Amino acid sequence: MSETLLPDEPWWMKLPPRWRNVGTGPMGIVRSGQPSKTWLWRLHAHYKFKSIINLSFAPERDPRDKYEYKWTTKKGIEYHRYHWPSSSPPANLDEFHQVITLVKTVPKPVWIHCQGGRDRTGAVVTWIRRELGHDWESIIEQDFKKHGTPNHGWLAFIFAHHHGWPVNV
């Protein structure tokens, strides 16, 4: 089957995945930004993920989401989709905790992504690392320096929760 890039994809979507914020995390996590059709195939060939959690699912805006969903269905890959804002946690915090539970329970490796791989994806990976007892210094070294720091809304949410402070979204 021949794979082609969507005609309206920006030039940076055609770059190798190491330039699209791809990396690995704890508990069999593969993380990235939204891939093109071609890189979806390449990522799967390399990481052999068995589950996908898409944190920025918007098929009406991004045809890659529609393609990704159909592709995973054909491949028998477990697929979970959410439409969260990049600036802060979703209004329904139960959804956030549902994703954390999914990361722990879905078949591994699990690939988590959003549009850029920094804010939503970074927040989920940071949350998991904090639950595993990682200190902030190691998170900064292992994630933020490589993948970018999640924006202030996500960091405030994680920091407040892990210090037992009230969380207002």
Provide a brief overview of the structure.
The chain is of the alpha/beta class. The chain has 6 helices and 5 strands.
Write structural notes for this entry.
By secondary structure, this protein is an alpha/beta fold. The protein has one domain: Alpha-Beta Complex (Protein-Tyrosine Phosphatase, Chain A), CATH 3.90.190.10. The protein has 6 helices and 5 strands, in the order ββαβαβαβααα. The chain has a 5-stranded mixed beta sheet with strand order 1-2-5-3-4, with helices on both faces. The protein is globular and about 45 Å long.
Q: Secondary-structure map with pairings?
A:
Layout (H helix, E strand, L loop, with lengths): L22 E3 L3 E4 L4 H11 L3 E4 L8 H13 L2 E4 L11 H13 L4 E4 L6 H12 L4 H12 L4 H11 L7
Parallel strand pairs: 2-5, 3-4, 3-5
Antiparallel strand pairs: 1-2
Helix pairs in contact: 4-5, 4-6
Helical run tally: 6
Largest sheet: 5 strands, mixed
Rg to the nearest angstrom? 16 Å
Reported CATH architecture: Alpha-Beta Complex
CATH superfamily descriptor:
Protein tyrosine phosphatase superfamily
List the strand order in the largest sheet. Answer: 1-2-5-3-4
| Sequence stretches where pLDDT stays below 50 over 5 or more residues | 1-7
Helix/strand structural class:
alpha/beta
For the termini, the CA-CA separation is: 45 Å
Helix-strand string:
EEHEHEHEHHH
The dominant shape is globular
CATH topology (level 3) name: Protein-Tyrosine Phosphatase, Chain A
Mean of residue pLDDT values: 84
> How many β-strand stretches?
5
Question: What's the structural domain tally?
Answer: 1
Under CATH at level 1, the class stands as Alpha Beta
Helix content: 40-55%
